[in-house]
Here is the input.
Amino acid sequence: MKCFTCQSDNREGVKFCEECGTNIAIVCSGCDSRIPVGKKYCGECGKKLVRDEITQTDQVIDYSRPDSYTPKFMAEKILTTRSSLEGERKQVTVFFSDVTGFTSLSEKLDPETVHQIMDGCFKILMEEIHRYEGTINQFTGDGVMALFGAPISHEDHAQRACHAALSIQKALMEYSRKVKKEFGPDFKMRIGLNSGPVVVGAIGDDLRMDYTAVGDTTNLAARMESLAEPGGILISDTTHGLVKKYFQFENLGKVAIKGKKDLQMIYKLTSVSDIRSRLDASKALGLIEYIGREDEMHDLQKAFEKVKTGHGQVVGIAGEAGIGKSRFVFEMHQRTKDPCRYIESRCFQYSSNIPFLPMLEIFRSYFDIGEGESEEGINKKLKTRLEDLGKYLIPPLPTFRHFLSLPVRDNQWESLDPEEK
Here is the structure.
């Protein structure tokens, strides 16, 4: 049995790692019997273990050790390239967050309850920050500091940070309702972002990273966070310049910032814009006349003519980055006069860790599901569109609900193993 903390092998049946002492057994929710990790049924009462029980451990995250909370795929990437990262000057986006009214919250609730609430909050922060390959540099007790663009380099570090911030605030809306219902107080976080250079120092085996901020890169991010309203996201003018095409903002004007001689322009990040790629940005500014590629366009048109006769076609378009593949497809779509349903999905570098994202976007487009749509509205569209495809497609409705992160109230579906799902 392999320990998830130190990766050492242990004898079958042991409850604690024989190398580091980590608990590597789980508890059956039916009879409280301890069961080795990886088993599907309880050996005492015969209860089938659900996925959460199969993977559950009593691991306590050590927030002072990055290797205890950094995903394995990120840890491997950092450790295998750290020799080339150390001493590098990198452009990053610094992320700060904290809980508003944390002192008041701590006074109203007992320490164990506060610890439980913050553990749930940190889980959301870690999941979303790591989803966009940000690295958490420090836990501050009621929030975190994270870097996007170091030690793992990303040209779109500012976009990743903005996406992570929006995802966190969205997830915290549901979490705050849960906290309010169970414990009483309101629970909201504020987030601040700023972009600038840092110099990466030594990276330890435990993934702890030393870095030196150049100028006020870190301080200004902290100021943005302190000025944000509960549940809000503030970004600096520098970050805004990097991402203004891809998100929606509220211009809050110039404000006085401690430590800064001149007034600073700040913006409130509100949502993702319709522009998601360089082609979208170019279309917004106005495209120049398209010249060339007539032979390739003719081949694509011939394939489309076969589609209209009932013969499905698949066409692959290959080429070096920047050669014009997206524009070529766009032009084909513009020249298609026949009525047809056009569904488009894109892969983005910052979304490489989100499973099935391209397919998810295709389904959202096909079912006409908009951002923030109600569960009732989504369910109605699912049933209507599936009926259009044929009666035989009605049974997979639970599959689509699960895929779209909606509750599935179906006993047959819930009885399936994760692999079967």
In short: Residues 50-59 have pLDDT under 50 and may be disordered. DSSP finds 14 helices and ten strands in the chain. The CA atoms of residues 367 and 381 lie 6 Å apart.
